[in-house]
Structure formats: C-alpha cells, structure tokens
Amino acid sequence: MNISMTGPNNKNEYVIAIRGDFDFNLVEPFVETYEKIKNHDNTIVIDFRETEFMDSSGLGMLIKLRKHFGENADIRLRTANPQVMNILDIAKFEEQFVIE
Q: Which of 17, 18, 21, 71 yields a CA-CA distance of 20 to 30 A from 82?
C-alpha cells in the first residue's frame, strides 16, 4: 500500500507516510487512514519524503484533512521532494500547515 501510519510516537505524533503518487487513487485510503486517529490533540505529520508526484487531488485531500481536524490542529507536512514542495508553495499551503 502507498499509505502507512505509525503512532502516536514519543512526541505524541501520528505520522502518515505517502509513497509514490499522491493522487485521486489514494483518496479513499488516505481518508480511512486519518479517520483512525481519534484523539484530535495529537500532532499529525504527513510525510512526503517518498512521494514522487502530487496533483490537485492530493491538495484537496490535505484540505479535507484540515477541515476534519479543525483549524487549531497541529498538522505538519514533511517534504524533501522539490516537486512536491513547489506544488505546496504555489498553493500557499504554508498558510494552513507547518511545512518542515
């Protein structure tokens, strides 16, 4: 599967790792994964270090994640891929998420 989740770890974080493409094919698995997090006080990290591609569906899923957990939730996007970082920059996601 292209999505895995660990946590909470010793930093009280859940880490959702996305491997490969973050696109329309992952909508249902992504939602099912984050809906398993019952405690909204945890930090949620979306790890894009192994993500090769993200399209507008990926951006939409992140917005849906933000709405699900609320404006005050600590949601962080961890990225090392310049292409994914560029998409997040263009969409101005630094205004809604902490980008590491």
A: 71
pTM of the prediction? 0.92
CATH superfamily of 3-8+25-99: STAS domain (3.30.750.24)
Q: How far apart are CA 5 and CA 36, in angstroms?
A: 10
Q: What angle do CA 73, 28, 49 make, to 5 degrees?
A: 60
Domain borders along the chain are: 3-8+25-99
Q: How far is CA 24 from CA 50, 58, 65, 70, in A?
A: 17, 7, 15, 23
Beta strands in the chain (DSSP E): 3-6, 13-22, 43-54, 75-78, 98-99
Q: Is the pLDDT of residue 48 over 90?
A: yes
Taking residues 26-38, report their average pLDDT. 94
